[in-house]
Amino acid sequence: MSSHTYLAxxxxxxxxxxxxxxxxxLTRRQLLTSWTAVTTLGGFILHTASLSQRWTEAGHFxxxxxxxxxxxxxxAIVLAFLVTFVRTHVxxxxxxIYPVVFGLVLLAYVSxxxxxxxxxxxxxxxxxxxxLAFFGYASLFLAFAMSLLYLIQERELxxxxxxxxxxxxxxxxxxxxxxxxxxxIGFVFLTLAIITGMLWSHAARGHYWAWDxxxxxxxxxxxxxxxxxxxxxxxxxxxxxxxxxGIVGFAAVVVTFVxxxxxxxxx
Amino acid sequence: LVVAGVSHRTAPVEIREALAFVKEALPETLRRLRxxxxxxxxxxxxxxxxxxxxxHATDPAGADRLANFLAVSHGRASQELDxxxxxxxxxEAVRHAFRVAASLDSMVIGEPQILGQVKEAYQIADEAGTxxxxxxxxxxxxxxxxxxxxxxxxxxxxxxSVSYVAVELARKxxxxxxxxxxxxxxxxxxxxxxxxxxxxxxxxxxxLGGRTFAKAEQLAASLGGRAMPFESLxxxxxxxxxxxxxxxxxxxxxxxxxxxxxxxxxRRPLFLIDIAVxxxxxxxxxxxxxxxxxxxxxxxxxxxANLRERRKQAAAAEALVEREAREFLDWxxxxxxVPLLVELRRRGEEVRAAExxxxxxxxxxLTPEQEEALQAATTAIVNKLLHPPTVxxxxxxxxxxxxxxxxxxxxxxxx
Lengths: 267, 415
Description:
Number of helices of chain B: 14
Number of strands of chain A: 0
Helix content of chain B: 55-70%
Number of strands of chain B: 10
Number of helices of chain A: 10
Shape of chain B: elongated
Radius of gyration of chain A: 19 Å
Radius of gyration of chain B: 32 Å
Largest sheet of chain A: none
Largest sheet of chain B: 6 strands, parallel
Order of helices and strands of chain B: EHHEEHEHHHHEHEHEHEHEEHHH
Distance between the termini of chain B: 27 Å
Oligomer: heterodimer
């Protein structure tokens, strides 16, 4: 089977998972049943097969152009979600994960495979840098999702009127902790990605840093996360401010991702 | 199975009180009921919301006799109670037993006490020796289905009483309550109850005393915490995660400045519960970051929202319990034909053995091959003849018509 067929199958599995989560959220049942777990895992396996097939087809690490990056990023998010779910059992994360994964895989499915100059695709920096960066994006996306859940629930609690989220989301303390943990892990990946990016830039173009969109936004995100993590660990509680930082920081990450994808494809 | 009784649905509290049984007298009452009934098996469930008698009786008048017993044993005439009393038989009675155990017939749907009460009622009957195979089976199946309903649907989720709502909200904010500081300002009944729940979940209590400091010390001791003078309010508020205020003071006791000062020292959230009427806490503290203030009305409205949420879940629980009750009924019906099937098979075997004996007497000694052939042929004849009635009987019993036709079937088969 071609990488495209595998991707279509993965998309089908994720669609079932996404529909399942939303139906259950509406009826306020347990969000992730064994069914959802099976479809997600099945989708993930097919998705992995698609990526490895694409690697063979392209003859280089599949991280060039919109098709590859969207697919790879979705894969990293599913992986991060599975790891987080096994560790924390926070079902409400599914509400944020499934639509995004579905959207990214759909985007990958409809966009054509891209190519890039040999100098880029043959570089050893491509797999290392991109993998680190995408694992970072995935973790930071989880931090973003938990921050969002934190803020929505805090609003409901402040307003003294429990609505849907009151019944679906874990305690504020847990949202805060998981968000901070994901942000820390994402931060480590982001830091390593920036360093490898600089090395790559130096190797390819002779300078470490260029003040372009992706570099600047990555740096802005990095500073926001430093501030978030430092205050979180000094006070033991991030609260609303950390939640806002998790959201703004992720916005900078999105800018970075978009400028890479729409730009040359690599540094 | 027959059931007779009164519940919060059918009778006011005066009637329920009048018909309630004292726990200590139950074993004696159960034995008397069985002897007078006459009934094979009896069980009495007596709680503040219902008084019910369950019994195994084969005749349709059984439920009336139970109703009569319930009235007479409390010195009432049974006609007088007719309007309050329900009498259930057969399938209806079984369904009722399942729904009661699963807390679907409770005043507050999904309340957890009923399961324990039903368990205890069976336990008492068991010890009094008035349980038999039917009620034992009903006990196992209905309690198991009640547990399933509780774990697989949300009927038991979310607090519906004010003091538990306070605990639930605290959990929603802090997650684990272990080692959270709980500050009690003023000692009222409701604030004490909420504090007790919080301490049981691992919270550490501090009681602020006013003029009657001895009272605060007493309460602190019973909560395993410490008492402090009221003057240390700001300082204690700065340490607190959860503060419950329930003084009888006519005006504001916890001012905005107090809370703002406490917040300056801490970034963790502060959960303020104002149980007093008139209110103790300045409502404007709600604007402060990380402060969650709930007064009695707020707690009540959360409780109501939770109850609505439970009712949504009740439909799923009803379906589950109905399924389990039907399974139980099917199983019970299949029991009706089991003795008949056993008897049929025994008769067949008897006839076969007798005929073989006759043949042997006539033919004399047989070779092993002949003996084997004879056994095989006769067994096959019996099996083939009995196969269709066996299948049909099982089928009929599943459809629930066996008991009506059992007599006729026995006659036809010559049993």
